[in-house]
Design a protein that fits this description.
The complex is a heterodimer of chains A (about 250) and B (about 525).
Chain A lengths: L6 E12 L1 E12 L3 E5 L6 H8 L7 E6 L2 E2 L4 H6 L1 E4 L11 H11 L4 H14 L15 H13 L5 E5 L7 H16 L3 E5 L3 H7 L2 E6 L2 E6 L1 H8 L6 H15 L1
Parallel strand pairs in A: 3-8, 3-9, 6-7, 7-8
Antiparallel strand pairs in A: 1-2, 1-4, 4-5, 9-10
Chain B lengths: L6 H20 L7 H23 L11 H31 L4 H6 L4 H34 L6 H60 L4 H5 L2 H6 L9 H6 L3 H22 L3 H13 L16 H14 L2 H12 L2 H9 L7 H25 L4 H5 L5 H30 L1 H24 L12 H4 L1 H23 L3 H38 L11
Chain lengths: ~250, ~525
């Protein structure tokens, strides 16, 4: 039975093995209009989970529903409303940002006028207007990341999945990206993001999910997580480390 | 142990990197393939010796005569290998200048960079020698075995030629750098490298065509026109040929001059390489503005934008263009033959196989780029289009490029004969589709810059692509003469295609089984049967 539309992303019993379990029966429910952060140590299964949600990996078992659409049974419909940004920005060196956005808009079937207006806005917000007609081959990592982000947003996805989107960005660019994402959440879109920058998680996230060994070991608001670990006014870093340590001890 | 940062220390560092890089390229990054690769290399070397024996059997057992025909043939062979080495060396230098790789680390260290570049120049000459020894060595071995021990001098000459061609390549590239600047040098040097690699063969073919109306190089080289117009047998011009034929005095002179030239070039240019690398690096930091003109924002269907993207990426990549140009250059002589014999019959027998073979090879390269060499696989995989739509659009892009290149030839052929044009069109389409299918079956995930390594990722695919293209070319050639052999060639192409599709079929079947198992896992458990009454 499909999940309710108020649920932006519903994952049930998701499993994926690469020799050993990378994701091991993960379940989570992210609501529409929510900024959800996935935290976890290296190799916890965050990226594998997000890649399965984006349709880049086939799960061994489990179910994924995006705004009520079964993403495994109907991946094309699910992809239509999803935007994905990898931690390693993959763009075409020989294309300009405008050409790249034309390409992405075409892939997602966005109407020309709508795509043109959105591209203009995105390039402006991300301060890429000056470089709009330059080939990406000479761009810095941060600029490439911004072009890729514009590509992930040009079709105005309802669910935005971002894997370490702030890596390599300078403070100014990181602020720009954060503002754009907060704007999207306020507009009713849903953002699911991984990051190692816990200060951002602390400030931006509505809810935080902690993954360890492919399982969701804790979930809630920062206050709820603090209560769970009994850390009082501790920082998210302390709370996160305490949760991961508890999980290791339980194993 | 060599002192850190000395010439020997850098040489050892380079040797280790080159060895691992070569091994990784040969095994396509799979260490379990090392033994198999060594076996295949040895088998191929043996095979080349067999070919050399068959080619040279009419010459073996004869005394070496230093007549004009022998000197011309040997000089032509030297120029042929020299042009290939020059092309390879220019390619290597361009890569040294423009790929940053470890240079930033080394240039930021308090070590003398000229030593590193001297070693890299030496490595270029060494690798050029190694490749030519592998390819030409079998012919020399057969001549030594069956003709005379004097042919051993040819090995010495190969080393001398590699030293000279490396030196010329450095001078040419540096001069280009100084005259047209680092930005343009990249593309111009790569195009020159591609042209130089084939220019000697093509030049000979064109000369043969205009003098005798054929594409046979040997006919031209042995013609009275050439024999009567070459310098006297005692001329300095023949020294390299004499050196190859075992004249030790000439070998010492030629090798000495080559070594002196190489040392002079290394001493002069190695200290300046760092400056060129910095200039080239600055180019890669500069963005290239693409003049969009007054056109508006262009959005099409997924298939249309995919085709457009593939076209743009191919057209804007100078290196890819130069690599493709190399294949297309070989179409120049048959094109000239077509033009020269306008109104006469019999051209198609020569022309059609060349056209069909080229179409197959070009399509194979382009199909690899579009299907396997996708630089943003996550982006296209996360798009709301089915994999079938994606692949179809990519294949259409390849077929469009093939159509663009070969349509003029087909149109020109229609002026001779509609039947020949039809055979050419069918043959080109069949060869191109076959190559695309093979690339589809053996697709891997790679980056476009790994294009050079595409042949090593699957040797079966490479071999199949070549054999199928040869079969289609043979079928085309036989079909225009009305020979029933064309049917045999078509059958051979189809059997080959079927044979290479079997592993793909097996893989697809396994995938379908996995998907069925997944669906079964996700399906709700069947309801328990009602209790028996």
């Amino acid at each position: 039975m499909p999940s309710q539309p108020s649920s932006a992303l519903k994952i049930e019993g998701l499993r994926k093995q690469f020799g050993r379990p990378a994701v091991d029966g993960l379940s989570l429910d992210v609501r529409a209009g929510e900024f959800y952060l996935l935290l976890g140590p290296n190799g916890a299964g965050k990226t594998t989970t997000l890649r399965m949600v984006s349709g880049l990996l086939k799960p061994d078992a489990g179910a994924i529903h995006i705004f009520g659409i079964d993403a495994i049974a109907d991946p094309v419909a699910a992809k239509q409303i999803t935007g994905w940004l990898s931690d390693e920005p993959m763009i075409y060196d020989k294309l300009t940002p405008v050409e790249y956005l034309e390409f992405v808009a075409g892939l997602w079937g966005v109407e020309r006028d709508v795509a043109a207006a959105r591209s203009r806005d995105l390039l402006h917000w991300l301060k890429l207007d000056e470089h709009a007609q330059e080939r990406c081959e000479g761009f810095s990592r941060g600029m490439r990341q911004k072009v890729a982000l514009a590509g992930a947003l040009v079709h105005d996805p309802k669910l935005i999945i971002l894997d370490e989107p702030l890596t390599g960005l300078d403070a100014g660019s990181a602020r720009l990206v954060k503002d754009v994402l907060v704007g999207k959440v306020r507009a009713g879109n849903c953002v699911v993001m991984t990051t190692h920058i816990l200060e951002i998680a602390e400030r931006m996230a509505d809810r935080i999910g902690v993954i360890s060994n492919g399982r969701l070991v804790a979930e809630g608001t920062l206050a709820e997580l603090r209560d769970r670990t009994g850390s009082g006014q501790a920082s998210l870093e302390d709370v996160f480390l305490a949760i991961v340590e508890q999980d290791r001890a339980a194993e | 142990m060599s002192h850190a940062r000395s010439l020997a220390w850098f040489a050892r560092h380079e040797a280790r990197l080159s060895w691992r890089d070569t091994l990784s390229m040969m095994t396509a990054g799979r260490p379990d393939r090392e033994r198999r690769v060594i076996f295949w290399i040895l088998s191929f070397a043996l095979f080349l010796h067999g070919i050399a024996y068959l080619v040279l059997q009419r010459y073996v057992g004869q005394e070496i005569r230093l007549d004009a025909k022998t000197l011309i043939a040997v000089t032509a062979a030297i120029l042929l290998s020299g042009s290939a080495m020059l092309s390879q060396a220019m390619e290597s230098i361009t890569r040294i200048f423009y790929s940053r790789s470890d240079l930033e680390l080394i240039l930021s260290a308090p070590a003398r960079a000229d030593k590193l570049f001297a070693v890299r120049i030496g490595a270029m000459a060494f690798s050029a020698t190694l490749v030519s020894v592998f390819l030409i060595g079998p012919f020399i071995d057969i001549l030594i075995w069956r003709s005379s021990l004097r042919w051993i001098g040819a090995y010495g000459l190969l080393i001398a030629v590699s030293l000279v061609t490396t030196s010329i390549a450095i001078i040419l590239t540096v001069k280009l750098f100084q005259i047209i600047g680092p930005r343009r040098t990249r593309i111009v040097a790569q195009i020159i490298a591609a042209i130089v690699g084939g220019i000697f063969v093509i030049g000979l073919q064109i000369a043969a065509m205009f003098s005798g109306g054929t594409l046979s190089r040997m006919t031209f080289l042995e013609s009275d026109f050439v024999v009567n117009n070459v310098p006297d047998a005692t001329s300095l011009f023949w020294w390299p040929a004499r050196a190859a034929l075992g004249d030790w005095r000439c070998l010492v002179w030629v090798s000495g001059i080559a070594l002196l030239l190489f040392l002079a070039v290394t001493i002069r240019y190695a200290p300046r390489f760092a400056g060129y690398v910095f200039a080239a690096t600055a180019v890669s930091y500069k963005s290239r503005v693409q003049t969009a003109g007054s056109r508006g924002f262009r959005v099409g269907t997924p298939a249309a934008v995919l085709r457009r993207k593939e076209r743009l990426l191919i057209l804007r990549d100078s290196w890819l263009i130069s690599q493709s140009l190399m294949q297309l250059l070989y179409l120049v002589p048959p094109a000239l033959l077509l033009w020269r014999n306008y109104g006469k019959g019999g051209v198609a027998v020569v022309l059609l196989p060349v056209l069909i073979m080229s179409a197959g090879q070009l399509a194979g390269g382009l199909a690899w780029l579009t299907i396997s060499g996708e630089d943003a696989p996550d982006l296209v995989s996360s798009a709301p289009v089915t994999p079938r739509q994606l692949l179809r659009a990519k294949m259409e892009a390849v077929m469009q490029c093939i159509g663009l290149v070969f349509c003029p030839f087909i149109l020109a052929l229609t002026l001779f004969s509609g039947r020949q044009a039809l055979v050419a069109a069918v043959g080109i389409a069949a060869a191109a589709i076959s190559s695309i299918a093979i690339q589809l079956w053996f697709r891997t995930q790679a980056k476009r810059r790994q294009f050079r390594r595409r042949h090593t990722s699957s040797r079966i695919a490479t071999l199949a692509e070549t054999l199928v293209a040869i079969s289609w070319a043979g079928a085309g050639g036989a079909a225009v003469t009305g020979s029933p052999l064309s049917l045999l060639a078509v059958l051979s192409a189809l059997v080959l295609l079927y044979a290479v599709s079997i592993p793909f079929g097996a893989a697809s079947y396994a995938k379908v089984r996995r998907q069925r198992a997944l669906v079964a896992l996700r399906a709700p458990a069947p309801a328990a049967p009602p209790p028996a009454a």
